[in-house]
Amino acid sequence: MKINFHLLILGILVVLPFFSFAQALITVEQKTVSMSQGEQPAYIVNVPEADFDQVTKDWEKIIRQNTKSKVEESGQELVIMGTQIPEIHHNPINIFSTLFQADSSIIIVAVYEIDSTFFSFSEENKNLHSEKTNNHITHFMRNFAVEQYKEFVEEEFETEDKKLIDLSKELEDLAKKHQSFLEEIEENQQDIKNAEDVISSSEKDNERKLEEINIKKESMASVSDDPIQFDAAKDQLKDLEKEKRNIENILEKEKKNIVKYNSSIEEYNRKIEANLEQQEMVKASIEEQKIVVSNVNLKLKGIK
Questions:
Q1: DSSP H helical segments within the chain, as ranges?
Q2: CB 299 within 8 A of CB 24
Q3: Residue 61: which H helix or E strand, with range?
Q4: Residues facing 113 on adjacent strands
Q5: CA pair distance 251, 200, nearest whole angstrom
Q6: pLDDT lower than 50: segments of the chain
Q7: How far apart (Å, rounded) are the C-alpha atoms in residues 129 and 116?
Q8: What's this model's pTM, rounded to 2 decimal places?
Q9: CB atoms within 10 A of CB 117
Q10: Each residue's pLDDT tens digit, 117-146
């Protein structure tokens, strides 16, 4: 008989109405299920927030420990015959199990055949031997589910904690950029001061040079009748006028530099404003992420 999944899932959801997959408390329940071997007693556990493929892989690994038996797929069942699991029983065990996704959890349904009998535990057949076997199976499945859930939450914690670290690093980088913008402004302000000093000095040089040119022009009148002296004075005047043009070029250049430095300061001020806004956004994200990390940590500590 093939397993009736619709009835099985419905039966599990009925028997486990109290399961809240957001809770960390993991319990193992018993219920009769329809599977390949007919109606048989099964142990049922849920693994919250887990990856189906990973849980399936790890489940196959743990039920075939200490044995060369292989896990075979029979329809939607995982079957292993004659496996050795000392923590459950000293005799070989046949396990018929099914795993399926239910919301964000993985449900594991397992039937255990020991000594050619499908194991069942109830008050009617309660004895020391059956009670011990029941406890062993319960602990075996519960410990597996707990470890699977812990691994998932530990990975979740690492992921969320890394996000927090990355956000902190982002805030640190923004703070460094903010400081570099302030330094650039300070540097531009110093450049403006230097340019103003050059302008002040050059303006004085320009006034002196203008005075020298005027004096030279006046002196040329006195040597106008001496061609040699006049030509020499004319050359000197050209040199003075060239020097004056050089001074004026310096003045023009430094004035343009001041405009450029002021424009740069305005740009850095805009960058600072945007940077500070971004810092506030990242700070808010950090506070939110701290809560996420704290909640995941609490969830991890609360797994029982």
A1: 5-15, 52-63, 128-222, 227-301
A2: yes
A3: helix 52-63
A4: 94, 118
A5: 9
A6: 1-22
A7: 16
A8: 0.72
A9: 8
A10: 999 887 666 788 889 999 999 999 999 999
